[in-house]
Amino acid sequence: MADIPAQLVKQLREMTDAGMMDCKKALVETNGDIDKAVEYLREKGLSKAAKKADRIASEGVVSVEVASDYSKASIIEINSETDFVAKNDTFKELVAKTAKIVYEHTLSSIESLHTMNVDSVKFEEYLQQNIAKIGENIVVRRVSSLKVQGSGIVNGYVHSNGRVGVLIGMKYTKDSSKSACVELAKNICMHAAAMKPQVLSYTELSNDFIQKEKVAIIAELKKENEEFARLGKPLHKIPEYISRSELTESVLRAQEEKLRADLKAQGKPEAIWDKILPGQMERFVADSTLLDQRMTLLGQFYVMDDKKTIAQVLEAKSKELNDNIEITEYVRFELGEGIEKKVEDFAAEVAAQMQ
Q1: What domain range is 118 assigned to?
Q2: Distance CA 91, CA 97 (A)
């Protein structure tokens, strides 16, 4: 058996919530490679996912600016080493000036931000001056801006703690739809802040990613079924598909034919099949898109109406307004997202970004 340090086992346990012995076995099987060990645990159904949020070591703020006419909006993330500095007046002024520059110039890259002027110097120099004044490393980590193209609006939301922000671009065809879209976009921004969709649509998920996640999701459900069986609870249905991209026309036709055969076998009058089938097909799609429900904005069930996905909410609003309402762009920043602390040293991570 490979010699696995206790600290590495502890780290894997914190990342995955798996048992200590399961973590040790995973590390042994993967020769101490922690990333492979995470995947090993997921494929065995012993970890729902690597808990990246538990590995985030950053402080700072996410800030959102939205035009009064909803024609454009911007979002920024600025990291500091400590929460104490994030509450410092000098830091707050830095955030305000940075947000203003990004918003006014509709910037979407750090490189373009560094070329801007602020207080008679380039932004990069201005940032270094503030780092010296504050006495702590500061990083403008991400910026993004959305602007209306044609008939549409952009709205945004930042959570009260300043740690999560969202922008959504939405288009319509009738000017009379604008106010309704402004409100809907804001509500969907709030949904996204809470539910953490990673992308807008299933079309952004690669087939390789879907197949890899399918192994983990099925293993997770089977593992939960073991516990449910012990407790006498209803079991999860193990899906054959997990994303809408897998539900081709031939798959949907075959499922409908199967459901028709089931109705016939049950002796249901053929005259009422067309009333029963839509609901059954809708249930099949819901059961076969678990990955979309976890990772995509359009595939998630809406927190304000959990009977409908965001895509279905947009369809319903389109019918209500006699218009075609679409989400065209989606941006979500969560403070420290993707920064993984391995030796409790965020300062080193920030310093590395600044080189």
Answers
A1: 59-174
A2: 10
